[in-house]
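Quick one, tokens below. Sequence please?
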């Protein structure tokens, strides 16, 4: 049964085959790699002798056809490799060589970037293409062909180094000379914001003093010179989770050069609360001008201060929309509530109960007494005095009866009113455009389910934000702005060109219907939108981005749901509980999207889910294309976080773990469980290491130790700290400079500087900078979301990786280009 390629188009390929004798139908199988261990995926079931694979042809595909009779396969065709045709011109950063030189006890370690356009092929140990001439001063001391690092055993601290690529035998221009680092790290001095004191309130009658520490970071070339700048978020010591009461100091975002020069500072202002869930800042070259911008949620009072090279300082507030200015909004407004403000807010909410759309529609009870389960006493609409009485009952009797953690009498420091914006800042710090935030809060969380659970938490679910960057057209970056993931879930995509936002799409589940907004479980229900309703309540504390369907365009993995590149809902995952009921997989604290099983086509997703008895799984490994669960376990408790990586020598694929460690096929491994805070590609053998945060080796300080079960402790930083309490996050993990391996950025204990550590062990592998892998690069951008998660490459990155498929087009033997 001979199969051949019939037609190749950019977005699909058609194959045809000779009919098999007595065949009733045919099964078509697909894979994205031609390796002996590959488990081909069934993609077609047809009676025809042809099949169209709807995947982009920028990479080769591998297809074979089985003849079927009586539901039994009895004859298999030859393997068909599809030709290359489509071309995606991915927008990549034009970086410099990223050269570093570090003094070690053996000499001077020198590492540099390989650019993706310097790759020509592959070998057994890495990629091939450009070679590199290494210079000490003006003397060429080596030509390196098999890696992008070198050890100069004669090097000293007084030397300088440069590197020149050798392409097709011709040596090209050398990069800028660099000096030698004394240690395996470099410190970037910080300009720490001044201490402050919160307003007097119920929780702190005299106010609460607070200080600042460097928190999440991102990177981007803000001036187009090929060198990265460093964007730092400052959190006050009184920053809060969205479920915690209290005032917070202002949040700041700074932009620094490597030498510590402060270029600009954005003061988010009083109307953006400080905490891990409020401010995600996406740093990327959104408009394609070669300079990175920053997109962030703002509000009246947000301002930027720019520090020029001539020492002049310019301070500007964001531009308020003309409509808001006409309505009296100013940049001096303060919408942060006191406890008295909140009580008055409840009075007005209760007075308007009869006219609330959900009450008018009949979905909610006509009276608040019915909501609270007490006899009806008052006439509606409520008078102010009656509303005050009901508010008093609600705060001091009803709320404490639901949970002893409900202290609404001291509800202060939150923002449930006032405008919300989205601002794009240029690489120079200038405001480029401010628009309305795509999904307004609507209320204080009543419609979002914030009053419905036993823990009454106004301003919680409504103020859960995520952001990301995705190449939705396969070539250009778009910014992704999200609100909500416990109940109503929304994902909005924008392009930014010529100084303006343009909306690509909005996916909105709609609010989740409740019978009683003061006593219901909105987490388990679907939203009201007829198209997107199923993706309500499926999001995590982070998101991921990958081309899960092979069309060359990236999708948004929103926990247990996936939004396609065009804004349609690709799927939302449900499965059966032990009692047979169908339930959504639901919210979880951690998620990893990567090529976890190299013997399966495409990507896999490893999640934990916190629904406990209400969720089909406590953890699961799923197919990223369909959501199909490969393996997982039901759990009656929230399992916390999870992690993946190549951490067990000799075991095929990446391993995954929560409480126990499994291989990529679900087999439990008898190994010591590693931490789940963060991972890093630190070692020179392509394996994965773990960054431990919480009391590692019974220490009280979380310093950011890098270790695994094979190498032991590989980095034991001193005088540093991780962030976000038990989360133990570094400021950033990314391939910042040198070869392909990750660097780790940690804050010093006093936040006087952030410290970038690099690995000086020689690597025998040759790989382009991971910043030129767009899946990894957008992951660096979205890493600062809420519960920071690691970023992963398009390709399988591990000690047993197939170098042939790092860039799949290199594996192609046929083309129509």
């Amino acid at each position: 049964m001979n199969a051949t390629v019939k037609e190749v188009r950019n977005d699909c390929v058609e194959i045809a085959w000779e009919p098999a004798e007595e065949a009733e139908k045919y099964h078509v199988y697909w894979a994205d790699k031609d390796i002996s261990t590959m488990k081909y995926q069934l993609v077609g079931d047809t009676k025809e002798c042809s099949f169209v694979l709807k995947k982009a042809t920028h990479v080769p595909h591998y297809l074979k056809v089985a003849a079927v009779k009586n539901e039994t396969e009895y004859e298999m065709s030859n393997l068909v490799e599809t030709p290359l045709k489509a071309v995606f011109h991915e927008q990549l950063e034009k970086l410099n060589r990223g050269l570093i030189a570090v003094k070690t006890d053996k000499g001077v370690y020198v590492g540099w970037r390989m650019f993706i356009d310097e790759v020509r092929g592959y070998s057994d140990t890495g990629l091939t293409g450009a070679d590199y001439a290494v210079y000490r001063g003006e003397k060429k001391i080596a030509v390196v062909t098999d890696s992008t690092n070198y050890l100069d055993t004669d090097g000293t601290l007084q030397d300088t180094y440069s590197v020149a690529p050798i392409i097709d035998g011709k040596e090209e221009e050398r990069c800028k000379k660099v000096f030698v680092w004394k240690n395996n790290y470099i410190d970037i001095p910080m300009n720490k914001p001044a201490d402050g004191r919160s307003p007097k309130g119920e929780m702190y009658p005299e106010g609460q003093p607070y200080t600042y520490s460097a928190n999440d970071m991102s990177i981007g070339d803000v001036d187009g010179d090929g060198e990265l700048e460093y964007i730092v978020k400052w959190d006050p010591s009184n920053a809060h989770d969205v479920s915690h009461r209290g005032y917070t100091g202002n949040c700041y975002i700074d932009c620094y050069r490597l030498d510590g020069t402060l270029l600009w500072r954005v003061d988010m202002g009083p109307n953006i609360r400080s905490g891990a869930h409020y401010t995600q800042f996406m740093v990327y070259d959104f408009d394609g001008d070669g300079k990175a911008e920053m997109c962030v949620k703002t509000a009246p009072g947000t301002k930027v201060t720019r520090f020029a090279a001539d020492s002049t300082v310019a301070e500007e507030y964001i531009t308020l929309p003309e409509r808001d200015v006409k309505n009296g909004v100013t940049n001096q407004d303060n919408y942060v509530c006191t406890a008295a403000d909140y009580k008055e807010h409840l009075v007005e909410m209760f007075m308007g109960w009869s006219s609330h759309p959900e009450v008018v529609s009949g979905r909610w009870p006509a009276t608040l007494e019915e909501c609270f389960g007490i006899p009806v006493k008052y006439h509606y609409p409520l008078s102010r005095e009656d509303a005050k009485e009901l508010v008093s009952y609600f705060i001091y009797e009803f709320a404490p009866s639901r949970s002893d953690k409900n202290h609404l009498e001291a509800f202060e420091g939150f923002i449930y009113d006032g405008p919300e914006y989205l601002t794009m800042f240029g690489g120079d710090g200038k405001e480029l455009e401010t628009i309305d935030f795509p999904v307004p809060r609507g209320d204080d969380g009543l419609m979002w389910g914030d009053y419905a659970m036993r823990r009454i938490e106004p301003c919680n679910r409504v103020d859960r934000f995520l952001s990301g960057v995705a190449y939705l057209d396969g070539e250009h970056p778009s910014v992704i702005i999200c609100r909500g993931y416990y109940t109503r879930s929304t994902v909005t995509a924008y392009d930014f060109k010529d100084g303006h936002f343009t909306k690509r799409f909005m996916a909105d589940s709609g609010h989740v219907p409740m019978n009683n907004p003061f006593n219901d479980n909105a987490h388990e229900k679907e939203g009201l939108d007829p198209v997107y309703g199923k993706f309500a309540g499926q999001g995590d504390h982070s998101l991921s981005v990958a081309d899960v369907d092979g069309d060359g365009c990236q999708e948004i993995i929103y926990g247990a749901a996936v939004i396609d590149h065009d804004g349609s809902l690709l799927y939302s995952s449900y499965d059966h509980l032990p009692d047979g009921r169908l339930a959504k997989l639901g919210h979880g604290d951690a998620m990893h999207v990567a090529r976890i099983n190299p013997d399966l086509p495409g990507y896999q997703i490893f999640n934990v889910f916190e629904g406990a008895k209400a969720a089909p799984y406590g953890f699961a490994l799923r197919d990223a294309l369909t959501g199909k669960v490969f393996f997982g376990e039901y759990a009656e408790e929230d399992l916390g976080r999870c992690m993946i990586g190549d951490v067990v020598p000799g075991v095929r694929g990446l391993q995954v773990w929560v409480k126990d460690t499994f291989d990529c096929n679900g087999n439990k491994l008898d190994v010591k469980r590693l931490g789940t805070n963060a991972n890093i590609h630190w070692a020179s053998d392509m394996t994965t290491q773990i960054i431990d945060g919480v009391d590692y080796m019974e220490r009280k300080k979380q310093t950011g130790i890098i270790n695994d079960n094979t190498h032991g402790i590989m980095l034991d930083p001193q005088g540093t700290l991780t962030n976000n309490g038990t989360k133990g996050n570094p400021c950033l993990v990314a391939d910042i400079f040198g070869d392909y391996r990750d660097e780790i950025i940690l804050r010093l204990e006093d936040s006087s500087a952030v410290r970038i550590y690099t690995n000086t062990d020689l690597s025998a592998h040759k790989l382009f900078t991971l910043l030129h892998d767009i899946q990894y690069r957008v992951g660096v951008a979205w890493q600062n979301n809420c519960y920071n998660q690691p970023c992963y490459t398009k390709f399988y990155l591990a000690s047993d990786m197939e170098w042939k498929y790092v860039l799949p087009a290199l594996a192609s033997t046929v083309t129509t280009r």
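The longest helix spans residues 384-402. Residues 339-410 form one domain.
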